[in-house]
Amino acid sequence: MFYPTLFRRWHGADAGLEQAMKNVQETTVLGAYDPAPDELRDRVILITGAGDGIGKAVSLACAGYGATVILLGRSVKKLEAVYDAIIEQGAPQPAIYPLDLQGATPEHYEQLADNVANEFQRLDGLLHNAARLGPLTPMDHFEPEEWTRVFQVNVHAPFVLTRACLPLLKGSKDARVVFTTAEQGRSGRAFWGAYAASKAAAEAMMEVLAEEHDSTPNLRINSVDPGPTRTRLRSIAYPAENPDAVKPPEDIADRYVYLLGFSAG
Ligand SMILES: NC(=O)c1ccc[n+]([C@@H]2O[C@H](COP(=O)([O-])OP(=O)(O)OC[C@H]3O[C@@H](n4cnc5c(N)ncnc54)[C@H](OP(=O)(O)O)[C@@H]3O)[C@@H](O)[C@H]2O)c1
C-alpha cells in the first residue's frame, strides 16, 4: 500500500540514497538529495535514543543542518557526549532530556511536552528511534515480562510520546513525525519475537496516524527502515558479523534529515 501525498514509507534503505528517493516518491525521480547547509534551520526536533548509534548520528546531522535538537535517552553520560559534540561543531545549543522509556508513565510524557512548550514554544520534528532488541529466541521460550519490556520501549513509548506531543506538533508550521521500522517487522522471521512484532506495530501506528492526519497539511507522518547499520543493537543481533561489512550510522543520517525537514511530502 502506498499513500502518495501524505506520508511515505522509506524502505529499501540499502539501495543507496538516490534509489531510496525514487522509492519514496515512486513516480517522481528526484535525483540525489543534497540538503542545504541550513536545511533544518530554526526547527526544533526531538530524537529518542539520541545517545548512541543511529540516534546519535542523526542528532549530530540535524544539529549540523541548523536544528535545535532535544536529545532524549536513558544515559545522561551518553547524551552529554552528544551534546558536547554538537556544541563543538558550532551548531545550535541542544537540550538533554533523560528519560527511561521503559519505566516512563503517561505523566512523564505530558511533563515532557509541557517542558518543550515552555522552553521552545513548539516542536517541528519527532523521531522515534530508541529500541529494545530483546532476546532472539523461539516464541515458546520468550519470557512474557521481557516481551512487555520490548513493547513498552518500541510501541507504547512512541504512542504515548506522540499523543502528548501532537498539540505542539500541530502548532508547528510544518511538522514531521518519523517512526523507525525494520525488515523483521514487515516480514516476521523465526526467533525475532517481540522485536519483529513491535516493529510491525510501530509501522501500523504510523499508517493509522498518517490517515488520521490526512487533512492536516502541516503534519506529515513517515517511517524509516535504516537497513543493516553498524550499531550496538546490530552487533548483538549479529555477533558473528564483521562490523565493517555494514554501513556506519553517519552514512544514512541524511535520509533522516530529509524526512525531518521540509523536503519530504
Ligand atoms: N542497526 C540496524 O541494523 C537497524 C536496522 C533496522 C532498524 N534499526 C532501528 O534503528 C533504531 C536505532 O537503533 P540502533 O541500531 O542505532 O541501536 P543502538 O545503537 O542500540 O541505539 C538504540 C538507542 O535506543 C536507546 N534505548 C534503548 N532502550 C531505551 C530506553 N528504555 N529508554 C530510552 N532509550 C532507550 C539506547 O539507549 P542506551 O544507549 O542507553 O542503550 C540507544 O540510544 C532502532 O529503532 C532499531 O530498531 C536498526
Major β-sheet annotation: 7 strands, parallel
Helical fraction equals 40-55%
> Into how many domains do the coordinates divide?
1
Give the CATH topology: Rossmann fold
SS field, number of helical segments: 9
Tell me what portion of residues adopts beta-strand conformation: 5-15%
- H/E element string? EHEHEHEHEHEHHEHH
What spatial order of strands do you see in the largest sheet?
Answer: 1-7-6-5-2-3-4
CATH architectural designation: 3-Layer(aba) Sandwich
CATH C-level name: Alpha Beta
Low-confidence stretches: 1-30
Number of strands: 7
Distance between the termini: 16 Å
Mean pLDDT: 89
Give the helix/strand class.
alpha/beta
User: For this structure, what is the CATH homologous superfamily?
Assistant: NAD(P)-binding Rossmann-like Domain
Bound molecules: NADP nicotinamide-adenine-dinucleotide phosphate
The global form is globular
Mind telling me the C-alpha Rg? Answer: 17 Å
Topology:
Blueprint: E1 9-10, H1 17-25, E2 44-48, H2 53-64, E3 68-73, H3 76-88, E4 95-98, H4 106-120, E5 125-128, H5 144-170, E6 175-180, H6 183-186, H7 193-212, E7 219-224, H8 232-237, H9 253-260
Parallel strand pairs: 1-7, 2-3, 2-5, 3-4, 5-6, 6-7
The structure holds NADP nicotinamide-adenine-dinucleotide phosphate.
